[in-house]
Automatic annotation (TrEMBL):
Name of the protein in its database record: Integral membrane protein
Keyword field: Membrane, Transmembrane, Transmembrane helix
Source organism: Actinomadura namibiensis
Compositional bias per record (Basic and acidic residues), positions renumbered to this chain: 267-280
Entry keyword Transmembrane helix: yes
């Protein structure tokens, strides 16, 4: 195991990325444990941080740590490996704190424990997936080595093939994202085959592509809706279950935010849960998707 780690991580220069990855995961898990205990009013060492009546969200600490880690990594001398690793880990801690409240940044309101708060977990999943691919040595489109092509076909031909392939893959990525296939589009930047697959398949019915090109009632639109309801709904439910298993349920406000805390249960407001809607896979409360694919 030690030889494998040294060969695949240390010798390839991915040690800072590895520490970023570990620090990111550990911080996210510990943060979610902490906020769930605070939400449950459990006796716990950590409490909400306040400055007077102002609640200080942990995204603020995340931004500070990302700034310190980023500057430290840029300013670190080329031979100071320990400092580079430490800055990467510090940046990972900050990134986890920021993405854990990504929904707050996106909506500019505190939606942490509402359904829209699941966007934060989606953002964390995307960051983990992309970082994991980089850690495995899989390069995104546009970062391939041109030495082989240049030696075999000549520099001009090799660059031409490279640029053509790059442009084609980026165009396909845009098409896939417009079709509402977020995961396919992002992972496809590392595995181009997925871009071709996603580009030829039907778009999600709530996507911009479907609104532009699928006439309501047409065969393609009805087929897209059928696929969304019959095939994607179980996957979305499984994803929501996994999100809530890791991050807690996003269907009720924490006790400190509920109106009339000592009132009867019938008077306490309830935030709609995904299972309350007729079709959680097709649209969210405002007609958009309920989450990232």
């Amino acid at each position: 195991m030690g030889d494998f780690f040294h060969t695949r991580i240390v010798e390839t220069g991915r040690l800072p990325l590895f520490f970023f990855f570990v620090a990111f995961i550990a911080t996210f898990v510990l943060t979610r444990i902490n906020v769930r205990l605070i939400r449950a009013d459990a006796k716990w060492w950590f409490k909400n941080v306040k400055a007077g009546d102002v609640h200080i969200h942990h995204v603020v600490f995340g931004v500070i740590l990302m700034l310190v880690g980023g500057v430290l990594g840029i300013a670190a001398p080329a031979l100071a490996d320990n400092l580079t690793v430490a800055s990467a880990a510090l940046f990972g801690v900050g990134a986890a704190l920021v993405l854990d409240e990504f929904a707050l940044i996106l909506h500019l309101e505190d939606v942490y424990w509402t359904e829209r708060g699941r966007t934060s977990v989606d953002a964390v999943f995307v960051a983990l997936a992309l970082t994991g691919l980089l850690l495995l040595g899989i390069r995104p489109v546009g970062f391939e080595d041109l030495s082989t092509e240049s030696a075999e076909f000549g520099r001009a031909v090799g660059i031409g093939i490279y640029v053509t392939t790059l442009v084609a893959n980026l165009v396909l990525a845009v098409v896939v994202l417009l079709k509402g296939k977020i995961w396919t589009g992002l992972i496809g930047l590392f595995v181009p085959f997925l871009l071709w697959l996603g580009a030829v398949r039907l778009a999600r019915p709530s996507s911009p592509w479907a609104r532009w090109r699928y006439r309501p009632g047409s065969y393609r639109y009805r087929r897209a809706v059928w696929r969304e309801e019959r095939l994607r709904r179980p996957l979305i439910r499984a994803k929501i279950w996994l999100q809530e298993f890791i991050a807690g349920r996003h269907d009720r406000l924490p006790p400190v935010l509920r109106p009339g805390r000592h009132a009867t249960a019938s008077r306490q407001e309830r935030v709609p849960h995904a299972s309350d809607r007729e079709d959680p896979g097709v649209s969210g409360p405002s007609g958009g998707r309920s989450g990232i694919e």
